Fold this sequence. Notes:
Elements: H1 2-30, H2 32-52, H3 65-76, H4 86-89, H5 92-107, H6 109-121, H7 126-136, H8 157-185, H9 190-205, H10 224-238, H11 241-250, H12 259-283, H13 295-312, H14 324-336, H15 349-363, E1 369-371, E2 374-376, H16 378-406, H17 410-421, H18 436-462
Antiparallel strand pairs: 1-2
Helix pairs in contact: 1-2, 2-3, 2-5, 2-7, 2-18, 3-5, 3-18, 5-6, 5-9, 6-7, 6-8, 8-9, 8-10, 8-11, 9-10, 10-13, 11-12, 12-13, 12-14, 12-15, 13-14, 14-17, 15-16, 16-17, 16-18
GO cellular component, one term: plasma membrane
Pfam family, one: TrkH
Main location: membrane
Amino acid sequence: MATSRSTALAGAFKDAGRELGQFFRDFTTSSPARFAILVFVSLILIFTALLSLPIASDDRSRTPLSDALFTAVSTICVTGLSTVDMATHWSAFGHAVIFIGVNIGGLGALTLASLLGLVISKRLGLRAKLIAAGDTNPLRSHGGVVNEGQAVRLGEIGQLLRVVALSTLVIEVVVAVLLYFPIVWAGYSWLDAAWIAPYYAAMSFTNTGFTPTVGGLESFHTDYFFLTVLMISVFLGSIGFPVIYALSRQLTQPHRWPLHTKLTLITTVILFVAGAAVFLVLEYGNPGTWGESDAWDTTFQAFFLSAMTRSGGFSVIDPGELYESSMLAASMLMFVGGGSASTAGGIKVTTLAVLALSVWSEAKGRRSVEVFGRRIPSDVQRVAVAVLAWGATIVALSTIIIAQITKAPLAEVLFDVISAFATVGLSTGLTAELPDSAVYVLAVTVFMGRVGTVTLAAAVAATSKSQQYALPVERPIVG
């Protein structure tokens, strides 16, 4: 009797395990977008556990769950916001965990999974290519028909992954070398500079913005070489791996660049220059920022702030000292973010470009959206509108909830919420003072900003099904 009961119990466990395994297989293979969410959540839980260990904190005490979880989310989602002092709270082990985490998050969960598969099996199957494609273009992160006219063709995914791995390694090494001596000249020892330089290199290329030095960039606020290297590294990380891939193949042939590359670079440069001009005008006389500086320093710092509000997250000034008009301008730049399939966040510059071109075409009375001799299809325009609406909804809801919890000034709440959603990392100082309930809301905002718009775009693209009939047309009044 006991034997038969144990046999039946073992069979039940085996069936349950088989069903659970089948569930996870179906969940991860039915859509790369679902797989991305599963991987991101798993990584956040793992890094939360690691950062909760006593060995991870400098004083060997256990970090509170809210702080460990938020730091893990901010690390894996390459955001840079923090509820603790990053320079003094974490031990060497904690900093090592964060360094590894930002590089994982910067590469992208799907890209990392595909890279590991490529290393192990020496080849990529169709499923692995479709999974990797989810990181290169949100429109391809579903399991349906793949349009080979998009930024990176399916057959090029293997080459792209190699470019991603190589470019990340090369750029971070070069940036670390360039930053090493300025760090030594700032008063740090040769040994300290040996880990501070790679740390800054990773934080800048991944657009995270964590600073391992006490006082942040205070020691380097007049070191224009150091700050320029940071800006270049942030720019390279924010344009996206598909753009880096295209430039690596056709750098001297701009006429052959894909439309995605052209739109990304042009929109990025326009926002960079326009943002600097706006900050220069609005903050020129502000004694709390750079109102007391000379013309050269003011101009340089305006460009630096413009670059960092696009997702870099480093700051020489206290963002809380900005005029409210400048906070609004910075929030707009943060909301846009960087390039698609990059380490930056936001709704992405190509989304803004598509929306602007759509509005321009509508104003000119054109039936289609055309640029650089190419026509942008209506499904891309619909996804751009959906991403904008999705992002605005997340920001609005999070702002309302946190403002209600904290009763803090709306300008500060909105600034930090958009910084969280766009994975920028700039803060007015509000994030470090949030109660636990608001910290969890902001953590969800960070997570949704990193994976939510991609998931929504995939869902919109996946719902495009053929229909054998057409309903009657009726035009509601718009505007």
